[in-house]
């Protein structure tokens, strides 16, 4: 198996004032929290959004592993719907000492390029900043961070920076080259 260099950039906001919201897209785009932890729905979002950009780390997770992850207090999934169809999501993973990671964010390929991504990222970041308000006992958010890599969509880094995220770390590592799995095996030809 061959390896390819992958650059990973880590970005952060250290104040709610850092967030630079995008305008809402035209049409009937709504964002709602998936309040019932559902391994099936979360795996669908993960595979559908990341299938063409080689998200593979969770594809082997069992149902029980998904459920364990989703049941952690403070883990939230916010979904963008266009006329009732899920088009993308942002997943918040609270960590210690008021830190919240945007663990996953993206759009299903058919929904990209329609100005939904900036709006969803803005909304999800705002929910990271006010996460403690929905989870009594959690430390108020002091930092929101995420990472993106050279395998992600071509506009990902620009979107993060336009929303006010600042770069704090860059790493380059060799990773095994894998085929894009699609939302189901063989769905995408690369």
UniProtKB/TrEMBL annotation:
<protein>
    <submittedName>
        <fullName>Acetyltransferase</fullName>
    </submittedName>
</protein>
<dbReference type="InterPro" id="IPR000182">
    <property type="entry name" value="GNAT_dom"/>
</dbReference>
<dbReference type="Pfam" id="PF00583">
    <property type="entry name" value="Acetyltransf_1"/>
</dbReference>
<dbReference type="InterPro" id="IPR016181">
    <property type="entry name" value="Acyl_CoA_acyltransferase"/>
</dbReference>
<feature type="domain" description="N-acetyltransferase">
    <location>
        <begin position="29"/>
        <end position="190"/>
    </location>
</feature>
């Amino acid at each position: 198996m061959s390896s390819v260099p992958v650059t990973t950039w880590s970005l952060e906001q250290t104040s709610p004032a850092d967030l630079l919201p995008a305008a809402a897209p035209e049409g009937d785009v709504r964002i709602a929290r998936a309040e019932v932890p559902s391994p099936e729905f979360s795996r669908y979002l993960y595979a559908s959004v990341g299938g063409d950009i080689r998200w593979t780390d969770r594809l082997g997770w069992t149902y029980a592993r998904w459920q364990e992850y989703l049941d952690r207090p403070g883990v939230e999934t916010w979904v963008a719907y266009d006329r009732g169809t899920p088009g993308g999501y942002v997943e918040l993973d609270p960590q210690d000492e008021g830190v919240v990671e945007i663990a996953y964010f993206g759009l299903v390929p058919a929904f990209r390029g329609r100005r939904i991504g900036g709006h969803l990222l803005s909304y999800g970041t705002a929910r990271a900043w006010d996460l403690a308000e929905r989870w009594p006992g959690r430390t108020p958010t002091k930092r929101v961070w995420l990472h993106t890599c050279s395998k992600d969509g071509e506009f990902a880094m620009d979107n993060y920076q336009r929303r006010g995220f600042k770069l704090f770390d860059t790493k380059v590592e060799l990773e095994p080259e894998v085929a894009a799995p699609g939302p189901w095996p063989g769905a995408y030809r690369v």
